[in-house]
Amino acid sequence: MRTAGTESTSGAVDAGEERGLPTADADRGPGGRLPSTVTLVGFVALGLLALPVAGLLQRAPWSALPSILSGSEVLQALRVSLTVSLAATAVCAALGLPLALVLARLRLRFPRLIRALVMLPMVLPPVVGGTALLFALGRRGLAGQWLDSWFGISLPFTTAGAVTAAAFVALPFFVVTVETALRQAGTELDEAAATLGAGAWARILHVTLPTLRPALLAGVALAWARALGEFGATLTFAGSFAGRTRTLPLETYLALERDPEAAVAVSLVLIAVALAVLVTLRDRWTPR
Question: Is residue 202 part of a domain?
Fold first, then answer.
């Protein structure tokens, strides 16, 4: 039985909810109310993440933005960035899909070690990655010496080298995304197709790939965004040559000394791209 006081309180809460006002349960989530200290620290952490973006927005030369972004140096860096990032994304898709299938479908020896090697570029300092590429694919590197002597291919300090560096750091993002989707999908459809006589290639083309389409698009978007923002490995392995290897992040770094407003403007472009990718793919990680 509800008393008059209970009905009054319930009515007030309902009225507050209808008007969009905070109620007693406004901070109650799926796990219940949190201690106020935890809530406070959580919002401090959120502020730490949001503050740098706010600083850029506050310093942005909004009125001069069109003229800065249409400058020859920025447009040249944009062209190089698009060329490098799109080519690196294609490399990630071509190499990453088979690797994801191997990780998800085969019984491997030392699977933890192999997966650690796949994910290593995600946590490796980019400059260390560029140094490793230099000693592996440089003209006197472990494999680079043979590329140079047999095929006349030299990757360091070239556009192809910038593509290689970007693909090195972006590949794990594609592989992890697709492998996770493969594991979640299971093998039931693949096994059913096999019982009906479908061969390995037919199962991949007509069963696995259609199932993976959302994950493939997400992996491509994440790999492209990571390749577009690559800095350290590119600088170390490919250098910063205008028109060849100087991408938008490198242009931003150089502009900090000669023209801070241009650095802010280019930074805003890169942030906008990153946010667009994250918002587009929000269903991949946002709880429903």
Answer: yes
Query: How far is the C-alpha of 233 from the C-alpha of 229, rounded, in Å?
Result: 11
Give the chain's largest Cα–Cα span. 91
Q: Is residue 99 part of a domain?
A: yes
Q: What is the pLDDT of residues 12-42, one digit of tens each?
A: 445 444 444 444 444 455 556 888 999 999 9
3-state secondary structure at position 32: strand
- Residue 141 tokens, joined: 């590197």
Task: CATH number of the domain at 269, please.
Answer: 1.10.3720.10
Where does 204-282 have alpha helices with state H? 209-228, 232-238, 248-258, 260-280
pLDDT recorded at residue 29 = 55
- Minimal CA–CA distance to 182: which of 208, 206, 200? 208
Residue type, 236: T
Alpha helices in 186-208 (DSSP H): 188-195, 200-203
Q: What is the pTM of this model?
A: 0.81
Q: CB–CB of 173/222 below 8 Å?
A: yes
Residue 265, domain member (yes or no): yes
Burial class (CB in 10 A: 0-12, 13-18, 19+), 62: exposed
What CA–CA distance (Å, rounded) separates 75 from 65? 13
Q: What type of residue sits at position 194?
A: A
Average confidence score pLDDT of the chain: 85
Q: Residue 119: in which H helix or E strand, if any?
A: helix 111-123
